[in-house]
Amino acid sequence: MRDFNYQRPNSVADAAKALKGEAKLMAGGMTLIPTMKQRLASPSDVVDLAGVKDLAGIKKDGNAIVIGAMTSHDEVAHSAEVKKAIPALADLADGIGDPQVRNRGTIGGSIANNDPAADYPAGCMALGATIVTNKRKIAADDFFKGMFETALGDGEIITAVSFPIPDKANYQKFPNPASRYAIVGVMVAKSGGTVRVAVTGAGQSGVFRHKDAEAALAKSFAAGALDGLKTDAKKLNSDMHASAEYRAHLVGVMAKRAVAACG
Amino acid sequence: MPSTVKMTVNGKSVSGQVEGRTLLVQFLRETLSLTGTHVGCDTSQCGACVVHVDGRSVKSCTMLAVQAEGAAVATIEGLAPAGGDLHPMQAAFREHHGLQCGFCTPGMVMSAVDLAKRNKSPSEQEVREWLEGNICRCTGYHNIVKAVMAGARAMATGKGGDDD
Questions:
Q1: What is the dihedral of CA A252, A254, A256, A261, to 10 degrees?
Q2: 8 Å CB contact of B57 and A100
């Protein structure tokens, strides 16, 4: 790892000011530190958000659960509020990485990084979350722009994520047995007559909504409604862990499991 | 650039000069000479470097020393006094032969103590899921799982566990 200047501002405003040149924000550091070790990133400055105290925490706000950007996966997984309102989101958080990663890793960091195999992007997309930054509010559909790419601009910092509470939701992941990253992960959420299905781990451009699955489930919310579901393998990843065709198959399997688990 | 970092390690106030890039595990091993915490993979996968920071288990190879400024850190050395009785989790690892070469053991024990503080009587499945982030290349895990279950029960019956 190349050395850098470490900064720990106390406010979002000061953190935004510190984001100049080759500076990088750090939340839990679960991706940034390994990336810096490999010298895939060599920032001049690391701006640690841990000193900004009002960024962590979970609250219910009307019909939404609002999670502060620096809230750890472990806190989300064990939050009574989240488990009651959106148990699927608590389950999703409880399946990220391993216990030590969940103790340090944060929702804001995960979303800002937008790893194509991360779990939270699927949760955000399927639940129709709103990403709140120091500058604006961004719908999840507009936030995830592709592999490791988001709508975040220069000096823009995620402060919270707001999840509307669905009627039913479930997340099913086929994890890589070593890394626990999703080879394929599917989140299904139903609110009234609207069904949203988001797929992570599979797409060449990161998380995506499966519109065919959504249409089928809007007509009939049952696993059988997904019989014969087609997923275009041409747009999916192929690597040492799974071919695109296998991933396309898994999308259907995971989506059915998620619907069945919704009950 | 170098700066001074201060924290509490195993109940003692410590400080030292570090660079921004100095990892917590480097600070523990190289500055404080607490070499019980091991570096296995250095890629946050194997868990040999697990320590507690403010009561939660973390991988000290994937945390900067400066991030632990002001924190309470507990390492394997802090679990039991030198020459004194073993911590119940350590005793359970010995009793159940939960180690062979021993390289992963400090991380296994620190990870297990964090589990036992949250779950007084974890099931075999809960232990196996919890140990997702700790890799052992010798034992096949079976005796480690037995040791963690026994150690958690021993901690719950008041034979120790106050490590932080």
A1: -170
A2: yes
pLDDT tens-digit series, residues A159-217: 999 999 999 999 999 999 888 899 999 999 999 999 999 999 999 999 999 999 999 99
B10: left (phi over 0), alpha (psi -120 to 50) or beta: left
Single residue among A99, A133, A164 that ends a domain in this structure = A164
- In chain B, which residue's Cα lies nearest the Cα of A78? B118
Tell me the per-residue pLDDT of A13-68, one tens digit each, with 9 for 90 and over.
999 999 999 999 999 999 999 999 999 999 999 999 999 989 999 999 999 999 99
Interchain pair A8, B66: CB under 8 A: yes
Query: What residue numbers bound the domain in which A27 lies?
Result: 5-47
pLDDT digits (tens, 9 = 90+) for B108-140: 999 999 999 999 999 999 999 999 999 999 999
**Domain ranges for chain B:** 3-78, 88-156
Question: Which chain A residue has its CA at the smallest distance from B58's CA?
Answer: A100
* CB-based contact A79:A58 (threshold 8 Å): yes
Number of domains chain A is built from:
3
The CA distance from A91 to A79, in Å, is 11
A99 with B130: Cβ contact below 8 A: yes
Nearest to A127 by CA among A260, A258, A263, A252: A258
Please name the residue of chain A whose CA is at the shortest distance from the CA of residue B5.
A6
Out of 3.10.20.30, 2.40.110.20, 3.20.20.10, 3.40.50.11540, the CATH code matching B3-78 is 3.10.20.30
Q: Kindly list the residues from chain A whose CB atom is less than 8 angstroms away from the CB atom of residue B3.
A: 6
The DSSP H or E segment spanning B147 is: helix B142-156
pLDDT of residue A263: 82
Instruction: Give the CATH number of the domain where residue A34 resides.
Output: 3.30.43.10
Give the strands of the sheet with A45-48, arranged side by side: A5-7, A45-48, A24-26
